[in-house]
Design goal:
Elements: H1 3-14, H2 24-36, H3 45-51, H4 58-82, H5 94-113, H6 121-146, H7 155-181, H8 186-213, H9 225-233, H10 236-250, H11 254-266, H12 269-288, H13 298-310
Amino acid sequence: MTRQEVCDRLQEAIEPVSPLPRGRLGQLVRRAWGRAITRDFPVLLPVWAAEAVGGASRLTLDVAAAWCGLYLAAKLLDDLQDGDPSILGSAVSTPSILNTATSLVFAAQGCLAGSGADGQSSTRVSLAAEFYRYSLEVAAGQELGMQPPPEGEKVLPWAWEVLQKKGARPFALACRAGAISGGASAEAVEVLTELGQCIGETVQLMDDALGLRARDVGDIRSVALPLAYGLSVGNEEEVQSLTSLAAAAGNGDSEAAESLCLLLEGMGAMRYLSIRASAGALRARSLLSSSVLLSSSPGVRALAGVLDRLDPAGGDTLCA
């Protein structure tokens, strides 16, 4: 099963049989896929999870397509929410972006529903419930991140909760749904769910580290983890400086953004992110060695490769 097959399955759900097989929405979906699903994005995470417990099937392909469809929809809506440039480009209007995101949500449902001819209706219903539950958690994390953060020592646990719901739950869903599609035992489903959660947390931590290194404070208004770390460990003077610089950076002051990132680095934010990312990768590796998974399967090997790329303690890291 390939990335292209997943893309084609999602496209098939967007473009049902009609006089216009290559309509406007299909074009926008293909554009979103090409710009958001990068080389390092683990499109096949559900497939690898299924292979780790048995084998991938047509149901697994539907799950992978549904998951990618929801990811693209969330990306489009998140950019609108944050006022960031859309992956669809500046020429695409806000109504068209909303229409594309909405079509992706319904296409994901269509992928999960399938044709009904594979004899797995009850499994598909269960999977739809999992997608529903996890997607609501992601939405709750998005909303939590828009609220005023607590002060003092409570800000770091709060930022972690946002990260876990908004950034990590999608990856937990990918592995969980993939495992279910592969006929995993209840124990294996839980192992792979936690594994996906660890992967998602590590991805977000590395994204934050890359943003800090690149002096990108685009998410500073939602109190990204590096800033929450600084606010929780800094002395009174440092907290005042961070608060002031964050406010100025959020209003587009590039010099303030540079100073904010330098101050956070000096306070150890990069080291904090790297340590937490390595700890998450270590936990994920221990889960990957569980006896309920097929250690020699291509899925386990692929998941191990993802962890090697993510772990800042390894030789090949996305943070390099």
